[in-house]
From TrEMBL:
Its cofactor is thiamine diphosphate. This is Pyruvate dehydrogenase (Acetyl-transferring) E1 component subunit alpha. PANTHER family: 2-OXOISOVALERATE DEHYDROGENASE SUBUNIT ALPHA, MITOCHONDRIAL. Keywords: Oxidoreductase, Pyruvate, Thiamine pyrophosphate. Residues 44-314 form the Dehydrogenase E1 component domain. NCBIfam families: PDH_E1_alph_x.
Length: 371
């Protein structure tokens, strides 16, 4: 096999060029009105602001860590807005944009990275599972959930579908490939959404795969498609089609959103050590927010008042994020025992009581020392 194979870039689904020119795609029609397009632009801007503030807060010592989504906003907002209320999403740890689409408040994300929450949010309430740090394991969780949906009979045009998010590095994990196989042989209603941001921390894509990632699906017996991950309209159209196919009994689909991680892998990473600035500059010209703004302006869908209003809302959101992060209270130490099991459990009750006695012993020691 030629060493150039991994560098070949197959045709991808694109509705919006980097210059903001819209072109219809025969396989992925998109019926969307100007109000919804403006809503997507607002989503992109506000999610990027949350991300920017979170990075700054981590640098100021307010967060232990943050995984930035900079550059991947279109992939997340486009796919997130394709979901219906009854659908379930299984994220990794970078899907802040999908969380936004599912009604997760930024403070709930920040609380996790600040270390003041033992979980986060109710997955059932939002149709959005808790963040997963173990690389690729959420693909199995999503497949199992989808098989449960299938066995419950919650399928059909009005039924639920499932989506699993992961990065290009996760495609090298056994869990992800096992999920592909289980989903295929069970015809499970699940969409695998891979955000190929070109780098698995410091490992480039050519060290992960000798073929384009979306072609992995064919080996398991289901379709794969590569979409322009910086085109929010294409991500919306392709994900909507894949989810509808899953609902209608067509089984799984692998979507490879071809995008780029503009920032560091996390705030513990220094990307300048392993990638060149020219690569970053090339992708900056494909910025998903600038692309959609150009489209709105060309088509007369938005004026300067609209853009100024979104910027003002962004500033207000940034101030709120900073305030809410810095004023978060620490959890009660005994909260760690809550919701470990769905029903009361004698072993957990005993451990809670023992830990409560242990904590109380410090108070007693302090009182004795005072005497």
């Amino acid at each position: 096999m030629s060493n150039n194979t991994a560098h070949e870039e197959p045709e991808l689904v694109q509705l919006l060029t980097p210059e903001g020119v819209f072109t219809e795609h025969p396989d992925y029609p998109l019926d969307i009105d100007p109000e919804d397009v403006r809503g997507l632009y607002r989503d992109l801007v506000l999610v990027r602001r949350v991300d920017t503030e979170a990075v700054a807060l981590q640098r100021q010592g307010e967060l232990g860590l943050w995984a930035s989504l900079l550059g991947q906003e279109a992939a997340q907002i486009g796919s997130g807005r394709a979901l219906r209320p009854d659908d379930m999403a299984f994220p990794s740890y970078r899907e802040h944009g999908v969380a936004w689409c599912r009604g997760i408040e930024p403070r709930e994300l920040l609380g996790m990275f600040r270390g003041v929450t033992n979980g986060g949010w109710d997955p059932r309430e939002h149709g959005f599972h808790l963040y997963t740090i173990v690389i690729g394991s959420q693909a199995l969780h999503a497949t199992g959930y989808a098989m449960g949906v299938q066995r419950d009979g919650s399928v059909g045009e009005d039924g639920a579908a499932v989506i699993a998010y992961f990065g290009d590095g996760a495609t090298s994990q056994g869990d992800t490939n096992e999920a592909f196989n289980f989903a295929a042989v069970n015809n499970a209603p699940v969409v695998f959404f891979c955000q190929n941001n070109q780098w698995a921390i410091s490992e480039p894509l050519e060290r992960q795969s000798r073929v384009p990632l979306y072609k992995r699906a064919a080996g398991f017996g289901f379709p794969g498609v590569r979409v322009d991950g910086n085109d929010v309209l294409a991500c919306l159209a392709v994900t909507r089609a894949a989810l509808n196919g899953a609902r209608e009994g067509q089984g799984p689909t692998l979507i490879e959103a071809f995008t780029y991680r503009m920032g560091a892998h996390t705030t513990n990473d220094d990307p300048s050590r392993y990638r060149v600035s020219a690569e970053l500059e090339e992708w900056e010209r494909k910025d998903p927010i600038l692309r959609l703004r150009a489209y709105l302006e060309k088509e007369g869908m938005a004026d300067e008042a609209f853009f100024a209003g979104v910027e003002a809302e962004s500033d207000q959101l940034g101030e709120r994020v900073r305030h809410e992060c810095r004023t978060m209270s620490d959890p009660d130490p005994l909260d760690i025992f809550n919701e470990v099991y769905a029903e009361p459990n004698v072993h957990i009750d005993r451990q809670r009581a023992e830990f409560a006695d242990y904590l109380a012993s410090f108070e007693d020691s302090g009182a004795e020392g005072g005497r």
